[in-house]
Write a structure and sequence with these properties.
With 227 residues, the chain is of the alpha+beta class. The protein is 32% helix and 26% strand. The strands form 3 sheets. It has a 7-stranded mixed β-sheet, with helices on both faces. A two-stranded parallel ribbon has the order 4-5. The chain is globular and about 70 Å long.
Length: 227
Amino acid sequence: MSLTIAHMPRGGDGRKWAAQNIERGHYLHKMPDPRTSFEVYSVCLHGRLIGALVVGRPEATRCADWYGSVDDVRARRCEVTRWQVLNLARVWISPDYQSGGAMCRPDVVPGYVDRRGMFRSTLASESLRAAMRVIGFDYLMRRPPCFLEEPYQIEWMLSYCDTSKHHGTIYRASGFERYRVNERGIETWRIRLPALTARQDAEIRAIADVHPRSVRYRLARSQMQLV
């Protein structure tokens, strides 16, 4: 089975394709707020583009004792900073490759045969598992940290599930744990991401040293400290 996850460049045809399909086929019918600094990743099966994942920063800057500000972490009010968490904001896979679709066949998509002899696709969960292996590093290469003396390695991926529309099956199958559910029935699921290798960390730090946004924010902070 040839399943790959790859970044979709901004302004490219692939990203436009992803946005069109998410706006048409995802239950939220829109891309995330640009202020979440989201990036889009393709899901390709046997070399064919069949889906897209959208990952960005959580809109909430603090979540209970899990993540918060750098000061929250220093004061031990939170485990990690909000810069160490990403939000899996959108998952869209072509209906042709989902249950009941023309391409949802054992010779095309990964899966298994259950006790009743029914074929069950595992395409969605395997797509997420493949994404978890690469996105923590790739995202920081696209959007490098500004302050290298502060925690920046992506520790967690979260995702929200509206229980009026979904049951969280894809998250359970992908290894996520349910962190909490709010009064509106919105579940928060999370999964810990692989740690960066020494080589990956060195690459990120090298880009952060020269990236215009990172340089600009460091300069602004240093000027504020002088004042």
